[in-house]
């Protein structure tokens, strides 16, 4: 066998592996891009999109978009509708109940672990981030709705606590299930409830009471406060019309892609 043939055969597997790895990376990037579109409110519940529209929206090649679709369908985030294309999950009563039940089951399990495993320094850092949001909100001499940076930071702090709670379990399977379900919850909230100035301070205060229970290592109180927090979010989604929530904003400052708080 010639040296050239041997070299070609040696390169072939590496080339195939490299191409496969690139395909996986692009598919993962496309999925990550899709989740960011949900979180930013650019993709909405019930919306119809084509594969080519997703290409443009995600800035990804068609092959990556096509490979991403089965994962989204498996997670219940989209469905294929004949003659119409892809439809983002439609928010209805069943989805709301199911999504919040899954959230409650996972977070209740997570808090039992986190209350004992989280270090004082980590909990104090989380507490400080919430106190910072409250201090900034209290110091404003203008309507909260005018400070988009503060509202976005509050959203990040809020979601960050819940995500960290689950990730601390160290269970990649549960974390993935929770991430997918979180997208459903956030689709629901973008449709029915937004991070309004009227909700920012109460939500931060709810979190601080929960963090205080974690610092006391009081698993019973922490679980009860978590239940109240999740139930409050679910009940608000199920009872407050979107128009009522939007009325909390000054008319000139209602965002075209509203943010939510969990």
Molecular structure report:
The protein starts with a helix and ends in a 16-residue tail after the last helix. A hairpin with a 3-residue loop joins strand 2 and strand 3 (85-88). Helix 1 (3-39) crosses helix 3, helix 4 packs across helix 7 (172-192) and helix 5 runs antiparallel to helix 6. It is 72% helix and 4% strand. The protein has a 3-stranded antiparallel beta sheet. With 262 residues, the chain is mainly alpha-helical. The protein is built from 10 helices and 3 strands; from the N terminus they run H-E-H-H-E-E-H-H-H-H-H-H-H. The protein folds into 2 domains: 3-88, Arc Repressor Mutant, subunit A, CATH 1.10.10; 93-253, GntR ligand-binding domain-like (Four Helix Bundle (Hemerythrin (Met), subunit A), Up-down Bundle).
List the helices and strands and how they pair.
Layout: H1 3-39, E1 48-49, H2 51-58, H3 62-74, E2 78-81, E3 85-88, H4 93-117, H5 120-139, H6 148-167, H7 172-192, H8 197-215, H9 219-239, H10 242-246
Antiparallel strand pairs: 1-3, 2-3
Helix pairs in contact: 1-3, 4-6, 4-7, 4-9, 5-6, 5-8, 8-9
Shape call? globular
Largest sheet: 3 strands, antiparallel
CATH architecture of the largest domain: Up-down Bundle
How many structural domains in the coordinates? 2
Portion of residues within helices: over 70%
Overall radius of gyration: 22 Å
CATH class of the largest domain: Mainly Alpha
Count of alpha and pi helical runs: 10
Structural class: mainly alpha
* Uncertain stretches: 15-21, 242-262
Overall pLDDT score:
80
Question: Do you know the CATH topology of the largest domain?
Answer: Four Helix Bundle (Hemerythrin (Met), subunit A)
Strand tally? 3
What is the H level of CATH, i.e. the homologous superfamily of the largest domain?
GntR ligand-binding domain-like
């Amino acid at each position: 066998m010639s040296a050239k043939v041997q070299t070609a055969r040696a390169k072939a597997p590496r080339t195939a592996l490299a191409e496969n790895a690139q395909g996986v990376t692009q598919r993962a990037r496309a999925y990550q891009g899709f989740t960011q579109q949900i979180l930013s409110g650019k993709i909405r519940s019930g919306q119809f999109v084509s594969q080519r529209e997703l290409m443009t929206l995600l800035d990804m090649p068609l092959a990556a978009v096509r490979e991403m679709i089965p994962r989204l369908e498996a997670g219940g985030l989209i469905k294929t509708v004949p003659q119409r294309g892809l439809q983002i999950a439609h928010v209805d009563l069943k989805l709301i109940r199911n999504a919040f039940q899954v959230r409650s089951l996972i977070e209740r399990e997570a808090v039992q672990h986190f209350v004992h495993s989280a270090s004082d320094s980590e909990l104090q850092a989380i507490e400080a981030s919430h106190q910072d949001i409250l201090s900034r909100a209290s110091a404003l001499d203008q309507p909260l709705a005018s400070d988009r940076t503060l509202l976005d930071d509050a959203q990040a702090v809020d979601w960050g606590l819940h995500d960290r709670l689950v990730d601390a379990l160290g269970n990649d399977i549960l974390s993935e299930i929770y991430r997918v379900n979180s997208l459903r919850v956030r689709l629901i909230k973008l449709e029915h409830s937004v991070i309004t100035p009227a909700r920012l301070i109460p939500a931060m205060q709810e979190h601080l009471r929960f963090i205080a229970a974690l610092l006391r290592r009081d698993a019973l109180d922490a679980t009860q406060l978590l239940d109240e927090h999740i139930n409050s979010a679910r009940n608000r989604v199920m009872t407050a019309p979107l128009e009522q929530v939007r009325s909390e904003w000054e008319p000139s400052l209602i965002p075209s892609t509203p943010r939510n708080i969990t």
